[in-house]
Amino acid sequence: MAESIHYTNRKGKTYYLHPATTKAGKTRYVMTRSAEDALTKLPEGYVITENVNGQVSAGRIKPRLITKLEEARVKSELEKFGLANHRVAVQHTYITIYEPRYHEEYYLPMLEQMAADASVLHMEKEDLIEDFLIAYQEALNEIGFSSRDIARMAAAALAI
């Protein structure tokens, strides 16, 4: 039996290729976590891709106007400036550079200041951190912090 078409993303999750029918009755191809009834051959003219968030999809091959060499040059320049943890995505005629969501070095000074403020306010550090996270969780989500990032921030704050 032939092996099913699958792709493991950078987060370690494996996705399998399946056909799906549109409302118009046309076939499109989707990637799901289920291996059951997965296709064993990638249709001609299609490619499996992963976006910067780790989402996997199957789509038609599009002409690439930015060369692999140009993409490598951008990544090299990012590394040169200490930005190797940024993600680079090439689509059609443009390159997008994504800044990582979780920057401990950016918020650690703020957390250290909060620890100092706790004593000035005659509060326990844990209580001040709890009040901060309750009051600003929505704002932190809106500026790009995930729930996991906020949990890491809380853990880092408690460790100070």
Structure description:
The protein has three domains: 6-60, no CATH class; 68-98, no CATH class; 104-159, no CATH class. Helix content is 38%, strand content 23%. The chain contains four helices and seven strands, in the order βββββαββααα. The protein has helices at residues 68-80, 104-120, 125-142, 147-159, and strands at residues 6-8, 14-21, 27-32, 46-50, 56-60, 87-91, 94-98. The strands form three sheets. It has a three-stranded antiparallel beta sheet with strand order 1-2-3, with no helix packed on it. Helix 3 (125-142) packs antiparallel against helix 4. It starts with 5 loop residues before the first strand and ends with a helix. The model has no long low-confidence stretch (mean pLDDT 85).
In short:
The chain has helices at about 70-80, 105-120, 125-140, 145-160, and strands at about 5-10, 15-20, 25-30, 45-50, 55-60, 85-90, 95-100.
Number of helices: 4
Number of domains: 3
Radius of gyration: 22 Å
Low-confidence stretches: none
Helix amount, in percent? 25-40%
Q: Strand tally, please?
A: 7
User: Can you give the mean pLDDT?
Assistant: 85
- How far is the first residue's CA from the last residue's CA? 56 Å
Strand content: 15-25%
The major pleated sheet works out as: 3 strands, antiparallel
Structural class: alpha+beta
Order of helices and strands: EEEEEHEEHHH
Neighbour order of strands in the largest sheet? 1-2-3
Principal-axes geometry comes out as elongated
